[in-house]
Amino acid sequence: MSEESFPLEIASNQRRITAFMIDDIVISLFFFIIFYDQFSAVFSNITVMDEAALQSINAFIAQNVLVVFLIKVIYHTVFVWQNGMTLGKYVLKIKVIDLETGQNPNLQKALLRATLRIASEVLFYLGFVMAFFMPLKQTLHDKLSGCVVVDA
To answer: 77-125 pLDDT, tens per residue?
Structure first.
C-alpha cells in the first residue's frame, strides 16, 4: 500500500521522534524510581570518576539491563495494545494502528512491535532509520509487526 492510497494521514517523522524522546524520559523516570536505592548506593561512593567508579557503574548497568528492556517492552506493549498510543504519542496526537484492521494492534502484534523496537535500539537505531525511506514511514518494528503510525 502506498502513502498516496493510504486513507489516513501518516504521522510525520518529526512528531514520531518527539514522541520517542518523551517516552524515553518517562521510561527513565520509571527506571530511576524503581532503582533509586541502588542509584544512591552506587553514586554516593563516587567522589571522583576513576576506574573503580566506572566499574561500579558498569556493574550496575550489567545487573539491570534486562530489567530496563523488560520495562520498555511492557510500557510499549500495554499502551499500544490498549490505546494505540504511548504517553509520548498521546501528547503528539499520533497513534499506532494495525495495517489490516485499522484498529489498535492486538496484544500479540503490540508485543512483537515492542520487542522488535528494542532490537532496533540495540542495533544502533538502524530499524528507526527505515522510517525516512519507507512510503508509509514505517520503522523496522512497524513493518515486521504490520503496523503504521498515523495522526490521531
So the answer is: 999 999 999 999 999 999 999 999 999 999 999 999 999 999 999 999 9
Task: State how many domains the chain has.
Answer: 1
Which residue range(s) make up the domain with 123? 13-151
The pTM is what? 0.89
Running DSSP on this structure, what letter comes out for residue 11? P
113 belongs to a structural domain: yes
Residue 83 φ then ψ, to 5°: -125, -10
Whose grid coordinates read 542495533?
Answer: 123
Residue 112 inside a domain? The answer is: yes
Q: Whose grid coordinates read 485499522? A: 102
Q: What is the pLDDT of residues 120-140, one digit of tens each?
A: 999 999 999 999 999 999 999
d(CA 81, CA 71): 15
The total number of residues shown for the chain amounts to 152
Q: Whose CA is closest to 94, among 26, 149, 21, 24?
A: 149
